[in-house]
Each structure stands twice: as C-alpha cells, then as structure tokens.
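As a warm-up, study this chain.
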Amino acid sequence: MSETPWHKKLIGGFKRTSDKLGENLTGLFTKSALDEDTLDEIEEALIVSDLGPGMAGRVRERLADGRYERGIDEAGIRQLVAEEVEKVLAPVARPLEVEAFPRPQVILVIGVNGSGKTTTIAKLAHLFLEQDYGVMLAAGDTFRAAAIGQLKVWAERIGVPIVSGPEGGDSAGIVWDAVKQATATGIDVLIVDTAGRLQNKRELMDELAKIRRVLGRLNPAAPHDVVLVLDATTGQNALSQIEIFKEVAGVTGLVMTKLDGTARGGVLVAAAEKFGLPIHAIGVGETLDDLRPFDPKELAGAIAGTER
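Now compare it with the structure written out below.
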C-alpha cells in the first residue's frame, strides 16, 4: 500500500486502537483446535475493543466455521477482523458530493459542544476549496459567543466568507441571510454551524425545525445534508448521540473526529454496523489536511493492525 502522508496519518491515528485490540487478544491463542471457551474469549476481546457485538459475533462465526484444527495466531485474527471491518465500512464510505441544483448545497453540521464541530466545519470547507468549489460559512450556533468567534477566525484563515450575527441572535435569520448571499454570489456550498446543546432536546428540535422551514422557503431541497460530528474519544457514548440526533435532527451522515487521540477507534465500526449511515470523513489530527474521506480497505487494515 502506498506510503502517502494520509496513509501514514491513518496508521498513526489508529495505532492505539490496533494496539488495544492486540492487548485484548494476548494469551488467547492455542496450537490446538479452537474450543467454545476460546471463541467466547476472542469474541469478548473484540467487544471490549469497541468494535461492537455484531462485528465480534461475525468474527467468532468465521472462526467457528473455519478449519482451525491447529489453532490461530494473533495475525490470523487481525486478518479476519480486517476483512469483516472492510465489509461493514465499504457501503458507508461516502464522501460528501456537491450535486445540488440550484446552488448552493446547504450542509447543516450538528454535534454536541466539544465534539470538534467548529474545527470540522473549517476542515470540510478546506476539503471543498481543494476541489475548486466556492464555500461560505454560516454561524448558526448563536447560543455561544465562543462558537461564533471561533468560526470567524477559521473563515478568515481559510479565506471564505461568513455570515454571522450577535450571541443570542436568531439562527434561522442568519441562515436565511446566508442562503440569500450564497445564491446571489454563486457559492457552491454553504456550511451551517448549529447549536450543540442536548440538555433540552425539545428546544434544539424546535430551533432546527425553524431553520428547516426557512430553508424550505428558499430552496425546497435544502438542507441537502445533515452531518453529525462525533468525538471518537467518547467511545460508546458516540452511539447514543447518533440515536438522539437522528431523532431530533434527521441525521443523513457522519464525520468522526479525534481518532488519533483514542484507543476507541473501533466505535467507528460499531456505528457503521448499527446505523448504516454514510460516513463522509474521518479526522486523525489537528491540521486542516487531517480530515479526509477514507478507503474502506485501508481503514480496515489500520483498525485491525494489519497495515504498518
């Protein structure tokens, strides 16, 4: 496999995850045929590696059905895991495509505060700029002055226009202005930051519904995407966030960040298997270039530790 800068980041980003898998599998291998107890232990090791019970169950089934009279070593298990992970990731690895007509394509970005939402918006904008699309940002998270300020800094840094208002302002009004400006200036992609508080689900749902109504009056197809940003370091909590945000916001796709700072990268696989939502990109670092769409085979190898 090519040693591109992204490939190196991917392997480095998932090192803790693949190391954790190795630690959990240590001591489980025998030179004799696999018995039920060993299969149980291997299945449990995969579950505690955050790969999810579905993935663990399928690997166990393959081991049980296979001809392993002479047992199997760690490398063999990792290869099986890589193959099964690739099967799960292949249908959901879908980059965000700019297809809206008329323009702009409106992307609502949601996620709890602290998930890396604002930074992810900047990285997505950077990704679109690399593809020669015109990009505009809208600071729709008016609940926090810090969110507005941070998005303004990013907009200036990457050189894209931004529509914003005061703290406590009307999010839907900002989105209205942004769509009008984006349409008038021929912008291809409008990325909208939204409030990230889940303490009051009803309030958040009402706010997002208002934004949708406003968008619908300007472009019945908008929003074209509702992207949930997840922090991989929260592990299984990320799965409950998907559940909640699907209910309140109609999530259409996922971006998972901070995969380089955790041993819980397996939760990406659990999310793919449980929800089947498109995973548009993953983040494995702090720089603008560290958020990218992924190749399922390459990512499966990084998670399982078969690629070095």
